[in-house]
Each structure stands twice: as structure tokens, then as C-alpha cells.
């Protein structure tokens, strides 16, 4: 037998539902405000710099010795670049068109030539944030960028190259190669067709180059990858291409040449120099390849192959940007 309808009970029930709804709305509002205040809602664009890089920013502004060290380092890099370009002026081909997607921001008058595997994802997020492009799944898709250098007319390119703040970052070449291999072929952060295309080329050419190893003929090991890059492939893909053909440092007078190894100091410095630090912070990043990891990964590779690799990158990577060869692999080469 059903209970008789009680209006007062129904009203009480409705009130309870409304109260719960208001409480839930308040909780959601508090949660969203917390995300905004703690910089988790938007990890880049903010009026309150993220902890860590904000502290580094303050340290640069207050520490005269740190600022002096950054600027002295920059003076030395710029002079080395000029010396190199003068030395090789007669043998290089000057480029007036830049096919690599160099990022431009007209509001802050900044030009950034990114090099893959040199914290380029973090820098791309900075420039996307400047254009209010926050929720972007693939930062490497050029359609998200408002302006790229090759989109301008020749005259507009000249104007911007002359008057804008221009910078790039480079990285120890052998470490960058290992990072590219791990990212693309181990972690598979690449379209499947690209991975399979390179895998097929490399395995067909070098599948017999690891006798006695535990890998199968179908494993694209780091050793096989290095054989490919040192023999024929160092200029075939931007992720391991020499720095010179990507950013044309002898044709573009960069105002700042950054090193990946000094990113924690130099990224806040650039943001301050350009005024971008008023609205954007630099996202956190990790340096994945330690010296022990490098030695372990390169240990199976013959010395002569490493030397061949160094020769391939000798001028536009090692010499131009003051990296020593074999650098972090000196223990392997001198055994």
C-alpha cells in the first residue's frame, strides 16, 4: 500500500536538493579559483610567475654577478659565431629564404628559431600563450601559430630580422641525438608512418651490424640509428639535422644564443629582456640524459663510428657553438 502524498515532505526534499546544489556549486568554484591561483589551470600564461622560475627571475634581477655571468657568456658565444662565419664566408651558401618555421611575435617584437629536442616544446608553449592559445593538444602543429617568418613578404622579413629580438637555443649534439632516438623510436612520440618509414630504411641497411647482441634483426636499436645518422642521415630530419641549416646563424644576427645546459638561467633572462615575463612564465622541463645514461647508450658503438659521427657534426654543431668532441663520451673514446 502506497504512502499518501505529503506536500510538506516534498517541499523539504526540494530544499535539501537546492542546498546540496548550492554547496556543490561553491565547491566547484573554490576548486577552479584554486587552480588559477596555483597556476595549474594555465601552466604558462599568468600574472603570477610559477615557483622556481619566478625565483630564478628574481635572482637574475637582484644578483649582479649572475647577470654579469650570463652576459659575459653571451659575449663569448657571439664572438665565436662571428669568427666562425668570417672564417667560412667563402665556402657557405647564403640563405635569403627560411624554410624552417621560425616563430614570430609582433606584439613583443621577438623572433625564435626553435631546434627540435632543445626544449622547443616549452618555448612553443610560451609563444602560443602570448597569442592566448592555451588548450593546444599538439604544439608542433604549425597551424596554431599566428605568425611564422616565412609567411611574411621578403621586405617584411628584412624589417623584422633587423629590428626584432632574435634568439635560439642549442644543445650538446651527442646528447641531442640520444634524446631524439628515445623520443621518436622508444617512446614513439611521432606519427606511426614516420616511425615505420625510418625503421624500414635503417633495418634494411644495418640489420646485420650487431652480431652476438641480444636484439633481433627487427629491433631498431640506438646503435643502428647511430650507424644511419653518421653514414647518410644526419641531414635528413630536423630532429637530428645540423644547427646551421635550421637557423642560419651566419645569415641572421641573433641577439641571444642560448645553451640547453644553461636553460634555467637563460630562459628567465630572455623573458625579462623581451618583456614577456610580465604575462608568461617558462614551463618546467627536465634534462633527461645524464652523463651515465650517455655513456651506457653509446658504449656498444665502435669508436670509429662515433668519430665519424663527430665529423658529420663537426663544424655547424661542435665548432660553431663551442661544444667539445667527444665531450661527454671522452671516457669511451680514450679507453
Automatic annotation (TrEMBL):
The record's annotation in Pfam families points to: Sulfotransfer_2
- Membrane topology of this protein: Single-pass type II membrane protein
Tell me the keywords, alphabetical order.
Answer: Carbohydrate metabolism, Glycoprotein, Golgi apparatus, Membrane, Signal-anchor, Transferase, Transmembrane, Transmembrane helix
Main localization, broad class? Golgi
Q: What is its EC number?
A: 2.8.2.-
Sequence intervals crossing the membrane: 20-38
InterPro entries membership: Carb_sulfotrans_8-10, Sulfotransferase
What's the domain of life for this entry? Eukaryota
Query: What compartments host this protein?
Result: Golgi apparatus membrane
Which family does the entry's similarity section mention?
Belongs to the sulfotransferase 2 family.
Q: What is this protein called?
A: Carbohydrate sulfotransferase
Per the UniProt entry, what species is this protein from, by scientific name? Porites lobata
Amino acid at each position: 500500500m502506497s504512502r499518501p502524498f505529503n506536500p510538506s515532505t516534498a517541499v523539504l526534499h526540494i530544499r535539501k536538493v537546492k542546498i546540496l546544489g548550492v554547496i556543490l556549486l561553491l565547491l566547484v568554484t573554490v576548486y577552479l579559483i584554486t587552480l588559477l591561483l596555483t597556476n595549474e589551470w594555465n601552466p604558462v600564461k599568468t600574472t603570477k610567475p610559477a615557483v622556481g622560475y619566478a625565483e630564478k627571475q628574481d635572482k637574475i634581477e637582484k644578483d649582479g654577478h649572475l647577470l654579469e655571468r650570463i652576459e659575459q657568456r653571451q659575449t663569448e658565444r657571439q664572438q665565436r659565431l662571428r669568427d666562425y662565419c668570417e672564417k667560412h664566408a667563402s665556402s657557405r651558401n647564403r640563405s635569403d629564404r627560411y624554410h624552417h618555421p621560425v616563430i614570430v611575435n609582433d606584439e613583443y617584437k621577438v623572433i625564435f628559431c626553435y631546434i627540435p629536442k632543445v626544449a622547443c616544446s616549452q618555448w612553443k608553449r610560451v609563444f602560443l600563450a602570448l597569442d592566448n592559445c592555451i588548450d593546444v593538444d599538439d604544439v608542433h602543429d604549425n597551424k596554431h601559430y599566428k605568425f611564422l617568418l616565412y609567411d611574411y613578404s621578403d621586405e617584411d622579413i628584412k624589417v623584422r630580422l633587423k629590428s626584432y629580438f632574435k634568439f635560439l637555443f642549442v644543445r650538446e649534439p651527442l646528447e641531442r641525438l640520444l634524446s631524439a632516438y628515445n623520443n621518436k623510436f622508444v617512446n614513439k612520440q611521432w606519427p606511426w608512418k614516420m616511425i615505420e618509414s625510418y625503421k624500414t630504411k635503417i633495418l634494411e641497411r644495418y640489420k646485420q651490424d650487431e652480431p652476438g647482441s641480444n636484439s633481433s634483426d627487427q629491433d631498431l636499436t640506438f646503435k643502428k640509428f647511430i650507424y644511419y645518422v653518421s653514414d647518410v642521415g644526419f641531414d635528413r630530419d630536423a630532429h637530428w639535422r645540423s644547427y646551421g641549416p635550421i637557423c642560419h646563424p651566419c645569415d641572421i644576427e641573433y641577439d641571444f644564443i642560448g645553451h640547453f645546459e644553461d636553460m634555467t638561467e637563460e630562459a628567465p633572462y630572455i623573458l625579462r629582456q623581451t618583456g614577456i615575463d610580465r604575462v608568461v612564465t617558462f614551463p618546467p622541463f627536465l634534462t633527461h640524459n645524464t652523463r651515465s645514461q650517455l655513456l651506457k647508450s653509446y658504449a656498444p658503438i665502435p669508436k670509429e663510428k662515433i668519430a665519424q659521427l663527430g665529423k658529420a657534426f663537426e663544424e655547424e654543431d661542435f665548432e660553431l657553438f663551442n661544444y667539445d668532441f667527444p665531450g661527454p663520451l671522452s671516457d669511451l673514446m680514450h679507453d
